[in-house]
Amino acid sequence: MNFSVSFAVILNICVTILVATEATKILCPIKTLIQLGDSLSDTGNAIRLLPVGPTLPAARLPYGKTFPGLPTGRWSDGRLIIDYAAMGLGLPLVNPYFNKNASFRNGVNFAVAGATALNASFFLSRGIIVPSVGSLDLQLRSFRTYLASICSTPPECGDYLRRALIFVGEIGGNDINFPLSQGRSLEEIRTYIPFINQAIANATRDIIRAGATRLVVPGNFPIGCFPFVLAAFSNNDSTMYDELGCVRSANNLAIYQNSNLQIALEALRREFPGVSIIYVDYYNAFLTTFRLAPLFGLNRTTLLTPCCKSRQYNLLNSEFCGNPTVPVCSNPGQYIHWDGLHLTQEAYRRISQFVIPNILPTVIC
Ligand SMILES: *[C@@H]1O[C@H](CO)[C@@H](O)[C@H](O)[C@H]1NC(C)=O
Ligand SMILES: *[C@@H]1O[C@H](CO)[C@@H](O)[C@H](O)[C@H]1NC(C)=O
Ligand SMILES: *[C@@H]1O[C@H](CO)[C@@H](O)[C@H](O)[C@H]1NC(C)=O
Ligand SMILES: *[C@@H]1O[C@H](CO)[C@@H](O)[C@H](O)[C@H]1NC(C)=O
Ligand SMILES: *[C@@H]1O[C@H](CO)[C@@H](O)[C@H](O)[C@H]1NC(C)=O
Fold first, then answer.
1. Where is the signal peptide (predicted)?
2. Is 249 annotated in the active site?
3. In the chain, where do the E strands start and end?
4. What is the residue extent of each domain of the chain?
């Protein structure tokens, strides 16, 4: 063993001891992971909701081709951020609520692909069609039904929820995506944002009132860097794009959405001192992954191109990923984008490396 190797080993041991000491000081016992959200965290609910679910793309290959090798209902080639959160906490992966055969011993996932934070009636009154299943209020209803099945008194339920880390979102992205795909302007959609974040804050408040004390509320990604937005805005006016090639105005909308969400969360923190309400910055974690792409072994020429090459971005159309005529790259590990709406396992893994280690130390015990 030469000097540099032994030095590295010693350094490593010291760091491990330091980290372990820190960990015993700050880690709260988290026994359960609960998730509400949309397709960014759906691990198999939407594909089980009849009648449409089983025909959705995520019920077919190439979804799941990297992990676990067959489709699970995850909208990616493999793992999602919630999977990396579970792994980081040393918990088993969290099963979808609508898999009635599954164990929920260490958590339960209520997220449904296509879910909006606002309910369908908000959009219907504005002439916008969104899925009628899965919205945040319906997920809260599932949450309450589930809670009633495992505890019967407020102290008992409080005891269960106090040991849980609860992800409320990402949710709210679809409240922008559906109006955008139905031709609404960014200016109009901007006026929905305070309502979207009020719906998220209201749901978070309801979960806290049920007894939860540790909640994580992620913001939206820079949607202007997503293929479905790039396609919707495709144009040869170079001033529309930022230095990364993303649609500036769409990213600005996501920035406003996220800052408005943080204001709503700050008000909740004042309402519930002693409850941890952690904002997670998916926006910058994505951009950092994008900027460090070459270092991470991602192919820099396809950073804005999906691995599964959907020719349009309506899930129900035969030109969307999951249909036999849609080509799939052989190396999803070199891509950020999976199907144009969702990211690859590799992107979620990198993003998780930025955001997950920041969550636990900020939890109040
Ligand atoms: C539960 O398991 C049975 C038998 O394996 C299967 O037929 C059924 O589809 C499963 N139910 C759900 C909701 O996954
Ligand atoms: C939708 O949300 C609004 C505002 O919270 C509520 O008044 C209404 O009852 C909800 N509609 C449905 C169908 O759940
Ligand atoms: C949030 O809750 C407030 C107070 O109950 C209510 O007035 C408002 O309509 C709710 N907003 C949404 C979007 O659900
Ligand atoms: C930009 O697009 C317009 C309309 O599609 C076209 O007429 C024009 O020639 C294009 N300009 C360049 C520089 O490609
Ligand atoms: C990156 O992707 C391009 C386009 O698919 C391809 O031609 C090139 O060989 C790839 N580079 C590497 C290093 O894999």
1. 1-23
2. no
3. 32-36, 95-96, 107-109, 164-168, 214-218, 276-280
4. 26-298+348-359
Q: Whose CA is nearest to atom 11 of ligand 5?
A: 299
pLDDT digits (tens, 9 = 90+) for 344-358: 999 999 999 999 998
Nearest to 136 by CA among 198, 53, 86: 198
**Active-site residue, 39 included:** yes
DSSP string, 4-37: HHHHHHHHHHHHHHHHHHHHHHH-----EEEEE-
Taking only the tens place, the pLDDT of each residue in 231-276 is: 999 877 888 999 999 999 999 999 999 999 999 999 999 999 999 9
Backbone phi and psi for residue 261, each to the nearest 5 degrees, phi listed first: -65, -40
What is the pTM for the complete model shown? Answer: 0.89
- Atom 5, ligand 1: residue with shortest CA distance: 101
How do residues 148-188 score in pLDDT, each as one tens digit?
Answer: 999 999 999 999 999 999 999 999 999 999 999 999 999 99
For the CA of 201, the nearest ligand: 3
Q: Which atom of ligand 3 is nearest to the CA of 202?
A: 1
Cα(39)–Cα(113) distance, integer angstroms: 4
Ligand 1 contact, 99 CB (< 6 A)? yes
Q: For this structure, is 339 an active site residue?
A: yes
Residues with CB under 6 A from ligand 3: 118, 195, 198-199, 202
